[in-house]
Design goal:
Elements (H helix, E strand, L loop, with lengths): L13 E10 L6 H14 L3 E8 L15 E4 L6 H12 L2 E7 L7 H10 L5 E5 L6 E4 L3 H18 L10 E5 H7 L10 H11 L5 E4 L1 E3 L8 H18 L9 H8 L5
Parallel strand pairs: 1-2, 1-4, 2-3, 5-8, 6-9
Antiparallel strand pairs: 4-7, 5-7
Length: about 260
C-alpha cells in the first residue's frame, strides 16, 4: 500500500470494479469495445459494473439494453468528456473506479495489465510514451507534435512527471476520487490533467504503465480546434488552484466550463 495514512481507502466500498465509458456519437464503435472488455472484467472474478454516459443523440442507448452489469445515463444537456466522467464517478459503487475511451484503442492485454496493477494503488494510468509502449497504428504527425507539446506544458505547469496525461485509460481507488472530485470543474479533455494534478496535490502516487496503442482514424477528437481551448484550460486550472484565484473574474471560469469537446 502506498501510504499508511490511507489504509482505510480499501475498507469503505464493496470490492469490485466500476468501469465508466464516456461516449459522444460512438454508436458504431461501442459494441466492439464492450465485446473486447467485458470478458476481461469477467475474468477478474470481482464484481463489476459498466456505466456508459451517452453525451450525444445518435441512438447509442438502443444498443445497450440487456447487457449484463451495464447501465447507462443520458444527460439532458451536453456534459463534455470531463463532465461525463464526473457523472459516472458519482454513480459508481465499487472500490476500484476507472474510465476508458469508447473507441477500443486499448488492447485486451493492456486492459488486463491495468486491472492487475490497480490493487493497492491510488492511481494507475496507461501511457503511450513510456519505454515499452508500442503503436500499432500511429497518430498523424500533427497530432503527435501537438500531444508532446501539450504534455511538455502540463509538466512545466504542474510538475506531474507523467509522460502521457491524455491516454484514455485511468483507474483509481474510489475514495481518492471522492476526496478530490469536488475540486475539479473542467468539462473538456483537459479533465485528465485536472484529475492527475489533484491526485498528486493530495499526496498520492501516479502509477504509469506502458501500453500498445492502436490509434483510431475515426476519432471524434477535433485536435486542431482543441489546441487553444486546452491551453486556456490548463492556464485556468493553474489559476484556480493558486493564491490569485480570488482576483480573477468569475466569468472566466464560466468561459472555460463551456469547452465541452471530446
Amino acid at each position: 500500500m502506498e501510504q499508511d495514512k490511507d489504509s482505510e481507502l480499501y475498507q469503505k466500498y464493496e470490492t469490485g470494479i466500476s468501469l465508466i465509458i464516456p461516449t459522444y456519437h460512438e454508436k458504431n464503435r461501442i459494441m466492439k469495445s464492450l465485446d473486447k472488455y467485458i470478458p476481461v472484467l469477467e475474468s477478474t472474478g470481482l464484481k463489476y459494473e459498466i456505466i456508459v454516459i451517452i453525451d450525444g443523440e445518435d441512438g447509442t442507448e438502443n444498443l445497450l439494453n440487456g447487457i449484463k452489469n451495464l447501465s447507462y445515463y443520458k444527460p439532458a444537456i451536453r456534459l463534455g468528456k470531463g463532465g461525463a466522467v464526473k457523472k459516472g464517478f458519482s454513480l459508481a459503487r465499487y472500490s476500484y473506479i476507472g474510465y476508458i475511451d469508447a473507441d477500443g484503442s486499448l488492447s485486451v492485454k493492456d486492459f488486463e495489465n491495468i486491472l492487475s496493477n490497480m490493487e493497492n494503488k491510488c492511481c494507475t494510468i496507461a501511457s503511450r510514451y513510456l519505454n515499452g509502449s508500442k503503436w500499432i497504428n500511429r497518430e498523424p504527425l500533427f497530432n503527435r507534435i501537438s500531444s508532446r507539446g501539450f504534455n511538455f506544458l502540463v509538466n512545466a505547469f504542474f510538475h506531474l512527471n507523467v509522460k502521457d496525461t491524455q491516454c484514455g485509460a485511468k483507474f483509481f481507488n474510489k475514495k481518492v476520487i471522492d476526496r478530490i472530485l469536488p475540486a475539479i470543474s473542467v468539462r473538456n479533455r483537459t479533465f485528465d490533467v485536472a484529475i492527475l494534478y489533484h491526485v498528486k496535490r493530495a499526496g498520492y502516487n501516479i502509477n504509469e504503465i506502458p501500453v500498445t496503442w492502436n490509434h483510431d482514424d475515426n476519432s471524434n477528437m477535433p485536435i486542431k480546434a482543441a489546441i487553444i481551448p486546452m491551453f486556456v484550460t490548463i492556464v485556468a486550472i493553474k489559476i484556480m488552484n493558486s493564491r490569485i484565484k480570488e482576483y480573477v473574474p468569475k466569468f472566466l471560469y464560466k468561459i472555460v466550463s463551456k469547452f465541452n469537446f471530446y
